[in-house]
User: Fold this.
Amino acid sequence: MSNDSEILAATALETRFETLVRVSQAIAAHGDPKELFGVLVNELHRVVQFDFIGVSFRDKDSDTFQNYFIDMTSRCELVPEEKLTPDETLTLWVYERQEPLLKSTNEMEPRYRQLQAILKRLYIHSICALPLTTAHRKLGAITFGSKQVDTYSPSKVRFVSQVAGYIALAFDDALNFAALRRASEELQSKNDRLQLLLDVTNQVVSNLELRDLLRAISQDVRRAMQCDYVGLSLPDAENKQLRLYAVDFPDGKGFLQEDLVYSIEGSPSGAAFRTMKPLTLQSPFTGWLHYPIVQIAVREGLKSFCFLPLISRNRAIGTLVLARLRDDAFSQADISFLTQVANQVALAVENALAYHEIRELKEQLSKEKLYLEDEIRAEMNFAQIIGSSAPLRKVLKRVETVAPTDSTVLIYGETGTGKELIARAIHDLSPRRAKAFVKLNCAAIPTGLLESELFGHEKGAFTGAVAQRIGRFEVANGGTIFLDEIGEIPLELQTKLLRVLQEREFERLGSSRTLRTDARLIAATNRDLEAMVGEQKFRSDLFFRLNVFPVRVPPLRQREGDIPFLVRHFAQQFSRRMNKVIETIPSATMDALCRYHWPGNVRELQNVVERAVIISTGSVLDLDVADVQFPRATRPEERPATSKPPTNGALHEVLEKTERHQILEALKECNWVVAGPRGAAARLGMKRSTLQKRVHKLGIVRSSA
Assistant:
């Protein structure tokens, strides 16, 4: 028997020695505490009987123990429903006294009542707890539990105590390694976050395109914060809706996309925007699920959110939203850091918006400059007024008379007669010619916007007024403003127009500051304003103020003698634009054009000639007779007077010079041949006898070429 006992003892000793060796090998091979614990459990279970095993490590920061227990039957982690304080566990006793503790679950003190209930529920009868301690520090305790009674003898306790020393060293190394790794990760995280702040700052100074800026920032934030989604939203002008301007969501399903618009009221982003305070949400989003934007987020699979307001100068200008697909809440440290990020982002957005506004204003000013330059030197200026008929000369004589003054001029005329051209002529002959000529068609502007067009508005003056706008009277200061279709101005606005004419002052919409303007007004209408006054559709005082110097532009049917020159002018104009050469206008074509009564006046003639040039394939103007209907010959009373118009004055000289130039050019092109299909008369659309009379009258001789 003694020999058998010795053999058994030797075998047990050998097994325990092998276990110690394998424990040492496990310690060397595993640095992660949980992985190490799993290997140790398997090795210890070969020599020590236990049905559950656990380790507890003291957390000095929280003054609690971190516990990890394994049920050997299921090999699963045991997580008791009850939360025990350190005083209610055996671990604290072992940790403080640094002594092994053997207990029977039936013989526990009252303070361990909850622990006793847990152990009995697991059918544990024997408990052995030992301290885990190294030469440098106390770590915690290791606990064995058995469903058998009196499982742990003194010899087993001694052996397990010996093993516990190795385990303590192993866990000390593993915990140090884990702490070092956490410190390294925290340091890397801090570096990443500092880099994020630097990147955002760099974006502020290097990228002023709003959407590009927001996209770059979203990408930087997502990477640094290790989240799945980042979105940046900005409000509309009325602060009622948020628009998703930038999204960085590589794993998204496509429900959350840029330019998605959602209500500020009833959305988590809106709550952060309104309160100017961060907000965090986690699945199942209790109280928020009935809002559409939250439902979209749920469809994307997002489970954890952080909403941060972008605050600049004590007002919210947008929101920064971060989210994760995992149920991983944003910590208070995350929120504190992200608040700093949001402040930098707000600065970037404010700068980009300011840059955008400045660029828009610059573009607007550039457009206004081009517009004004174009208005000052339009294609059809005074020197290009075509015609020499008596009615036209009469009008131009009045233009020459009134142009040098600052008087208001009211131009009457049917649609298409060239009222704007007359207005330009007045401006070009006036001392204001170096300043702006600003035009506005009152019939083309909606009534609600006409006041803004005339006088300007401040930012926020009405819905849609996202920026300050300079009105036409302000732009025309020192120059001329031309208001076409002035009879369309509503009565309520006529009072303000009268004030500008009389007192030279006005206010922009949304402003109480009075501005002054030195703009000369030229108005035009195709309506009978005097009749409108009688019908109380136009203010009498404004009418009298406008009608200081009326100019009546004759319709084209009263300028029959000008039609050939206009046809020739338009034919040359459009042929140049279309890279064509129109050398001849058949006499039959010209006769047809002269017989037509032209209800649309010069504008209609211009359109007819343009269509003719389009369909012409050769050098002869090909007029589609369907383009003009000839219901009647011109009535005698509409024919131009044959009396010779005044020949003195600048205007007469300009007209004669224009006519002389056109006839000379035609004669040169035809080698001074007057008659025939290729002669100058056919090219000018005149009869041979008419051209000969004009050549004689203008004193044109071949030597003058």
In short: Residues 6-10, 376-382, 630-650 have pLDDT under 50 and may be disordered. The longest strand covers residues 315-324. Residues 154-206 form the longest helix (53 residues).
